[in-house]
TrEMBL record:
This is Rhamnulokinase. Keywords: ATP-binding, Disulfide bond, Kinase, Nucleotide-binding, Rhamnose metabolism, Transferase. It comes from Solirubrobacter ginsenosidimutans. The lineage of its organism: Bacteria, Bacillati, Actinomycetota, Thermoleophilia, Solirubrobacterales. One of its GO terms (biological process) is rhamnose catabolic process. It comes from the Bacteria.
Amino acid sequence: MTEYAAIDFGASSGRVVCGRFDGRVMVLEPCHRFANRPVRLPDGLRWNLLHLFTEAIGCLRGRKLDGIGVDTWGVDYALLDEHGRVLGLPFHYRDDRTEGIAHVDGYAVTGIQDMPINTVYQLLAERDSVALREAHSIALVPDLLAYWLSGELANEITNASTTALLDARTGEWARGLIAELGLPSRPFGALIEPGTLLGPTLAHHELEAPVYTVASHDTASAYAATPLRDEHSAILSSGTWSLLGVELPGPVFTDSALTNERGVDGTIRLLKNVMGLWLEQECARVWDAGFAELHAAARAVTGTVPIFDPDDEQFLRGGDMPAMIEQACGRRDMTRGEIVRSIYVSLAYKYRLVLERLEAASGRDVRTIHVIGGGAQNELLCQLTADVTGREVLAGPVEATALGNVLVQARASGELGSLADMRAVSAASFEPVHYAPSAVPEEIPS
Ligand code: LFR
């Protein structure tokens, strides 16, 4: 039996998950879960990174493991000087410093959907900063944490693709674009694949384990752990964001609303970032309500609810989400249940539109949607997704990101061969829940 630890920082929590592998089945065991709240400083919204790092390694102290790997969401980074010293705590992508930055036209090279959160805009927002001038290297957050664990710094390629500064065709930094934008070239360092051994943990951590790069972009890890049924399957990584896409052998540039992010083994995730359950999370925060209570209220609503475009940029930074949604729906008297149901129905309709675009761009017919991540537990949303899209939904694994993280490590240490082998382990370890489209689909709202 081998044991690997996944350090996974998501928007609602940070966690350490241990994966025990017997050669066939991977059993996941949560070791520690802790809040991941950004901190507002006078100059903006920052990661509370030292706190997170302390929490994550604290629970592993004294252990001997077969591997350790770090993943987090994409786009956020730290700049480091020539001694590897961090030049400021990373900003959180929901910080508003990218507002008003002129549009960057890099899609033909990077294939990345234009979003204000992209690293490229964050870097442009600090183009004149001392940090960027002095920067010797850039480390996306998981690169930085892996460096703190092992003393080795490298730019892991799946997360590098979220910067919107990677050439989607070559898998190299888009140096031409970087220069055109007036950004320094020096910080963009050696790119390495998931599953590369960085080295042992530094002795002062009192933790014995080889540190591996994994698919350090959480969505890349989650996709790698999806037991894909066949090439007619789409994947919906459902959590704070809804990442709905298909896995392809190479990039497709025909629809700039779709992004081409890198996955394990050079695969491309052609997907759309949809605003996702962030909408509900912000409502829950404003109402100080629990999710179980809100799900029950949404289930109890009978009749149609209005729908709105969940991807309206006004929702990105959060705030009084219930009021923003009522305004988007042109209503002022919605109950909590109606607002939450309207979020779900609006997401499901958005998924239907995205599927049409994915089918057109990829030339594939989508018949099944694998819903993975925390949102796979949301029965109402899964059923609405099946009803509105008319596709079968297979829900799970819920902990797809942590699973993908430890599976990449198991492969790096020689226990597994191909990406298909990793997915076979996922299939053997977790049973999906099926949702068939209802005979009487959700009524189309006016
Ligand atoms: C999901 C995710 C998405 C990315 C967004 C911001 O956690 O990584 O893939 O677009 O967060 O980085």
